[in-house]
């Protein structure tokens, strides 16, 4: 119980690292999507997402999702990755938000729940379907792009599509340093957890999280100075 | 609070991108000018920090825990403009590489959290911190309250964006196409979680980090210490920017007034007294007390004295009511600013004349 919040934080950090590592692995596999030019994939991905959002037909959105799954299979992206990184988290979040819509949306009554006496309406079910299908489809499209394209190629494609150079550089560096800071945080949490022999009070736990974040701020700032010096010494100009 | 794809309509997403773009442009220009070549490493590291800190589970009183954005800290260390850029980049990476928050909703997410959240957090931080010393306890409160206000304003914006969807977008059978909850459900639901758990996480984390930095790295909390230019000049951020930003946001949001039903209590026109449907609304809004059968004579007489050029915030030249509302807001604010500029000019002239009079040497003053 003491280390509950530490474990939750460690789990969140691990999950992000794990997701990025999986993307890196599958991006290098030889599959259908991996063979396409990243610029084409970016354009198709954007069109697919806009189509899923703009569509007024559940069947069409479900078709897009099915197509995404087929493309994933053809690209040797394991379905277990999509289930654990996309479908379940999205279902958890979007489902939590969408379920009340089944009962709260006024419309034609389909059935009434016993005991609770809540009314399920046709409009409520349709609205629930739109939310879940759209969220799952767009998240699947994004993850297909990420799982099938190594980061350097994706950044190169962004550059070729006229995204300003400084923005691409910022995204690239931020992505890289996220992992450095994730590892630093992980080490700090783990070292602290390994030294814990008693229960911490609420205020001690908050102090621990704050001081970890504080150390991370100062390290980030110091590191940015070092990186700046290293870039300047190599002749970097904005 | 990360809005996924599918919760907002394409037109809402486009509007939110359009609303966020000027802030991004201004923020990027200001930050580029201040940081010059330091921009890339500094903002990359702080964006990465924003990303990582969003994953920390902050223990809350009562045994539960919550996530924070780090708005109070960003306001204290980075200032508003660098904070807008850093949090926007972190949100972009979350959406693009981790599927957290939608790509079409990225404009809305950045507007809510990076822009509105940062501006409000910085405004509150500066207002509360004032010119207090870096080590003052007041700064801890300033950061905490800034973070709390910032995250709640961001949540309110998100709730409004959710809440207007079912009013505007439904299919042929009346089923909501996007977020299904109207404003009266969306706002209380979002705010309940953010005024309590998420707000508390933001409050406690901001306070904790600022208190820690006061002890270990107070230089980081000095205004402009982090974003100071390498070319030696002090960053020039107008103190009036939060007011202008708030004014701009409020003008954009004025068409929300069209969503209200009926007229404001006590602001009824003679025409409304004569309309049976409106009379029922007036009675319902007045505790079921029926309005007088005839239009009060004083109201009838006085209401005809002046006819406004933009009656009911709907200039007759504009066909679109929402655009008319925005133009009315723009005109009204423009007129108020002109009046203040005039008063300011008169005050300046009077002051100059008075000072001139005082500076006249007494010895030779007859």
What this model shows, in words?
The complex is a heterodimer of chains A (238) and B (366). Chain A is mainly α and 238 residues long. Helices cover 78% and strands 3% of the residues of chain A. Chain A is built from eight helices and two strands; from the N terminus they run H-H-H-H-E-E-H-H-H-H. Chain A has helices at 4-28, 38-54, 58-74, 79-104, 122-148, 151-160, 165-195, 202-233; strands at 109-112, 119-121. A two-stranded antiparallel ribbon of chain A has the order 1-2. In chain A, helix 7 (165-195) packs across helix 8 (202-233). The longest helix of chain A is centred in the C-terminal third of the chain and has 32 residues, at 202-233. Chain A is globular, with a radius of gyration of 23 Å. Chain A starts with a helix and ends in a 5-residue tail after the last helix. Chain B contains twelve helices and two strands. In chain B, strands 1-2 form a two-stranded antiparallel ribbon. Chain B is 63% helix and 1% strand. In chain B, helix 1 crosses helix 4 (80-98), helix 3 packs across helix 5 (106-129) and helix 8 runs antiparallel to helix 12 (321-358). In chain B, a hairpin with a 5-residue loop joins strand 1 and strand 2 (65-66). The model of chain B is unreliable at 229-238 and 357-366 (pLDDT under 50). With 366 residues, chain B is mainly α. The radius of gyration of chain B is 25 Å and the shape is globular.
């Amino acid at each position: 119980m003491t280390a509950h919040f530490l474990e939750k934080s460690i789990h969140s950090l691990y999950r992000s690292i794990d997701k990025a590592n999986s993307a890196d692995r599958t991006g290098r596999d030889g599959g259908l999507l991996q063979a396409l030019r990243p610029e084409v994939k970016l354009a198709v991905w954007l069109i697919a997402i806009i189509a899923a959002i703009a569509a007024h037909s559940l069947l069409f959105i479900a078709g897009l999702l099915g197509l995404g799954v087929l493309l994933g299979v053809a690209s040797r992206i394991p379905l277990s990755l999509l289930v654990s990184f996309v479908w379940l988290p999205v279902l958890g979040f979007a489902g939590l938000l969408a379920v009340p819509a089944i009962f709260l949306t006024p419309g034609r009554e389909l059935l009434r729940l016993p005991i609770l006496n809540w009314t399920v309406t046709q409009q409520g079910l349709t609205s629930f379907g739109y939310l879940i299908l759209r969220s799952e489809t767009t998240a699947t499209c994004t993850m297909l792009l990420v799982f099938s394209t190594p980061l350097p190629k994706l950044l190169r494609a962004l550059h070729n599509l006229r995204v300003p150079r400084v923005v691409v550089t910022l995204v690239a560096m931020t992505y890289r340093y996220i992992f450095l800071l994730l590892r630093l945080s992980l080490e700090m949490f783990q070292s602290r957890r390994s030294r814990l022999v008693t229960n911490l009070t609420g205020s001690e736990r908050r102090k621990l999280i704050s001081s970890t974040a504080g150390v991370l701020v100062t390290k980030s700032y110091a590191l940015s100075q070092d990186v700046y010096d290293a870039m300047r010494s190599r002749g970097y100009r904005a | 609070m990360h809005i996924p794809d599918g919760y907002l309509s394409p037109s809402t997403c486009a509007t939110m991108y359009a609303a966020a773009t000027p802030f991004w442009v201004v923020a990027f220009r200001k930050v580029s000018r201040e940081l010059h070549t330091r921009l890339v490493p500094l903002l990359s590291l702080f964006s990465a920090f924003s990303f990582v800190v969003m994953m920390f589970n902050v223990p809350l009183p009562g045994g539960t825990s919550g996530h924070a954005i780090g708005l109070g800290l960003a306001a204290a260390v980075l200032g508003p403009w660098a904070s807008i850029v850093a949090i926007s980049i972190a949100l972009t990476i979350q959406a693009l590489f981790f599927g957290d928050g939608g790509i079409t909703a990225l404009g809305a997410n950045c507007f809510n959290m990076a822009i509105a959240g940062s501006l409000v957090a910085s405004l509150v931080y500066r207002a509360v911190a004032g010119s207090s010393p870096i080590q003052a306890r007041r700064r801890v409160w300033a950061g905490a309250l800034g973070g709390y206000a910032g995250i709640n304003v961001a949540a309110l914006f998100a709730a409004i964006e959710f809440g207007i969807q079912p009013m505007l977008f439904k299919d042929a059978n009346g089923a909501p196409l996007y977020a299904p909850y109207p404003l009266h459900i969306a706002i209380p639901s979002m705010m309940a979680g953010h005024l309590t758990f998420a707000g508390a996480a933001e409050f406690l984390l901001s306070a904790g980090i600022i208190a820690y930095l006061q002890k270990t790295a107070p230089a980081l909390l000095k205004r402009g210490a982090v974003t100071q230019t390498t070319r030696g000049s002090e960053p020039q951020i107008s103190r009036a920017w939060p007011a202008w930003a708030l004014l701009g946001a409020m003008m954009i949001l004025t068409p929300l007034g069209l969503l209200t039903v009926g007229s404001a209590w006590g602001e009824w026109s003679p025409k409304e007294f004569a309309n049976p449907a409106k009379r029922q609304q007036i009675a319902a809004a007045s505790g079921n007390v029926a309005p007088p059968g005839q239009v009060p004579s004083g109201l009838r007489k006085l209401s005809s004295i002046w006819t406004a050029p933009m009656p009911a915030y709907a200039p007759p030249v504009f066909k679109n009511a929402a655009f008319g509302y925005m133009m009315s807001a723009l005109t009204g604010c423009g007129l108020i600013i002109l009046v203040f500029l005039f008063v300011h000019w008169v005050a300046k002239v009077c002051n100059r004349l008075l000072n001139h009079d005082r500076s006249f040497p007494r010895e030779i003053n007859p």
